[in-house]
Amino acid sequence: MKKILIAVVALIAIGLVGYTLWFDKPKAPDVELTSLTGQKTSLSALKGKMVLVNFWATSCPGCVEEMPEIKKMHEQYAARGLQTLAVAMSYDPPNYVEAFTRSQGLPFFVALDSDGKVAKAFGDIQLAPTTFLIDPQGHILKRYVGVMNFAEVRQLIEANLKG
Predict the structure, then answer these.
(1) What's the domain count of the chain?
(2) Which among 53, 49, 42 has a CA at the least distance from the CA of 87?
(3) Which of 7, 10, 39, 63 could form a disulfide with 56 if both were Cys (CB 3.0 to 4.6 A apart)?
(4) Is residue 21 part of a domain?
């Protein structure tokens, strides 16, 4: 009887751990950001929307490579509720970020993480590009380190956007 009870408890524990690993998505940190134009936002203010948070740098070849595709996705999904936040890494000179943003005509929220607090809140991001896709409830759906798999990102966006 004692062995059966131990086995049942072990199965329940394994089930809970498995459920947590497969289904329990972590919450995104509630960070505040200020855009290059001085506009402020926070992730809590964007609750109810899909959010793509991209940590990038002008000195990062992968970041520069993926930015036109991020721009296309933003243009494709913004009207349906996708918010795009491009967060320049603390080591990126502000004048480089401003020049790149202007030259590429980036239509979304571009912020400087001058003190590194936003990167730290997301798990001390050091490598760019690193991108998070956050669902309308504020949970992290996916984290990409390196250039994103855009087909997969589009599928996740489609599955989580309304309309």
Answers:
(1) 1
(2) 53
(3) 63
(4) no
Please count the other Cβ atoms lying within 10 Å of the Cβ belonging to residue 127. Answer: 12
Task: Give CA–CA dist 91/114, Å, rounded.
Answer: 7
Residue 19: the pLDDT is 47
Q: Look at residue 46 and tell me if it is in a domain.
A: yes
| pLDDT tens-digit series, residues 90-105 | 999 999 999 999 999 9
- Give the pLDDT confidence of 33-58 residue by residue, as tens digits: 999 999 999 999 999 999 999 999 99
* Neighbour-count burial of 98, counting CB atoms closer than 10 A to its CB (0-12 exposed, 13-18 middle, 19+ buried): middle
Alpha helix ranges (H) inside 24-82: 61-77
Domain span at residue 144 reads: 27-160
Evaluate whether residue 16 is within a structural domain.
Answer: no
Domain with residue 108: its CATH number is: 3.40.30.10
The beta strand positions in the chain, using DSSP E, are: 32-34, 40-42, 50-56, 82-88, 109-112, 130-134, 140-145
Quickly state the pLDDT bin for 25 (edges 50, 70, 90).
confident
Going by their DSSP bridges, the two strands 130-134 and 140-145 should be labelled as antiparallel
Residue 11 lies in a domain: no
Closest Cα to residue 85, out of 111, 106, 59, 61? 111
pLDDT of residue 55: 99
